Amino acid sequence: MALRTILTAPDPRLKKKAAAVAAVDAEVRQLMDDMLETMYDAPGIGLAAPQIGELKRVIVLDIEREDVKTGPLFMANPEIVEASDEDATYEEGCLSVPEHYSDVVRPARVTVRYLDRDGETKELACEGLLATCVQHEIDHLDGILFIDHISSLKRNMILRKLLKARKEAARDEAEGKPSTRLKMSAKESADV
Ligand code: NI
Questions:
Q1: Which domains does the chain have, with CATH numbers?
Q2: Do 92 and 146 touch, CB atoms closer than 8 A?
Q3: Residue 122 Cα, ligand 1 centroid: separation in angstroms?
Q4: 175 C-alpha vs ligand 1 centroid, how far in Å?
Q5: How far is the CA of 172 from the centre of ligand 1 (A)?
Q6: Are 113 and 151 a contacting pair, CB within 8 Å?
Q7: Most-buried pick from 34, 38, 75, 157 (CB within 10 A)?
Q8: What's the rounded Cα separation, in Å, for the pair 81 and 121?
Q9: Mind listing the pLDDT tens digit for each residue in 101-149?
Q10: Rounded to 5, what percent of the chain is helix, strand, coil?
Q11: Annotated catalytic, 120?
Q12: Which parts of the chain are beta strand (E)?
């Protein structure tokens, strides 16, 4: 396994649509394992392949909250096959939008169909945080970030702040100063 670099907005690679994998082969399993290690290290509870620059429809999740404990979930070519009419609002964060959080409204319950790490077709009924997280990660596969669900005013403000933080980090590095500006905040449970 290997730690990979997580891209941050406004990186253009985060806005691209990812391609389906033909099969869950050794290469895809390696990608899944690298993604899980990178996600735990961040730390976060979900990661999509485009976030590490791989335009493949692969996501990993591990929800450890309240009484919902799924253990690690590996999903290739995930698709929502059923969604509730009822909505739920969660405050979302994202490893690619560090240190920013915003309420996002999504269907409260979804059923996701996917290929697991063994290439078996599975269906999983999700609710609560897991439902939010699965939808957030599948969005990444279509080049959509959680900030695309909020007002353009707030989105542009966040993107401006991210660009400023990146420039300051680059300047610190050029001056040989250790930079912590792009380090994740402690609010890790919401970062997907
Ligand atoms: Ni995310």
A1: 12-188 (3.90.45.10)
A2: yes
A3: 23
A4: 31
A5: 26
A6: no
A7: 75
A8: 13
A9: 999 999 999 999 999 999 999 999 999 999 999 999 999 999 999 999 9
A10: 35, 30, 35
A11: no
A12: 46-48, 58-61, 64-65, 68-69, 73-83, 87-94, 97-107, 109-115, 121-127
Mark the residues whose beta carbon lies below 5 A from ion ligand 1: 94, 192
Q: How far apart are the first and last CA of the chain?
A: 20
| Residue with token string 């649509």 | 17
pTM: 0.90
Using alpha carbons only, how large is the chain's radius of gyration in Å? 16
Query: Which tokens belong to 136?
Result: 């957030």
**What spacing in Å lies between the alpha carbon of 119 and ligand 1's midpoint?**
24
5 C-alpha to ligand 1 centroid (Å): 14
116: its two tokens: 């697991």
